């Protein structure tokens, strides 16, 4: 990997996820020319993951799919980044969050975003089989909020957004790659 040119493959075509990956990694490599592309990558979990374990697995599955795609097609990729949003019930109530899976040189690093508390009626709609973005669109009279500020933006009055939370989680998940000597066994 050179710091002059970096290639990032994101396991989603969602512009929020692509922007978060590029923004986070560019902070570690401010002089680099970064090519950041998104692609469809199946999570192999439910459309709306309802547990931490399922959410983390979705992110890992997406990252591994992208890594295999790049290998099969002889595409040079410095970082594969995948994100999966989910919800779970915690001691303090229902919350939404996202897991990040980053692969660099065949090594996997996992990160997780902060928790955003969810109103009970939102969580109940998710338990009934709806997807968070659709529930939030209905509740706040928005359209396709998941490709914009997300539930996070709506519930924090724009002080945090889906992209800002993903960016922060990716920054943290990059730590093993930025400080490799400390993380080697």
UniProtKB/TrEMBL annotation:
It catalyses: XTP + H2O = XDP + phosphate + H(+); ITP + H2O = IDP + phosphate + H(+). Keywords: Hydrolase, Magnesium, Manganese, Metal-binding, Nucleotide metabolism, Nucleotide-binding. Residues 11-178 form the Non-canonical purine NTP phosphatase/PRRC1 domain. Pfam families: NTPase_I-T. It is an enzyme of class 3 (hydrolase). Binds 1 divalent metal cation per subunit; can use either Mg(2+) or Mn(2+). Its EC number is 3.6.1.73. Homodimer. PANTHER family: NON-CANONICAL PURINE NTP PHOSPHATASE_PRRC1 DOMAIN-CONTAINING PROTEIN, PTHR34699. Belongs to the YjjX NTPase family. This is Inosine/xanthosine triphosphatase. It comes from Shewanella aestuarii.
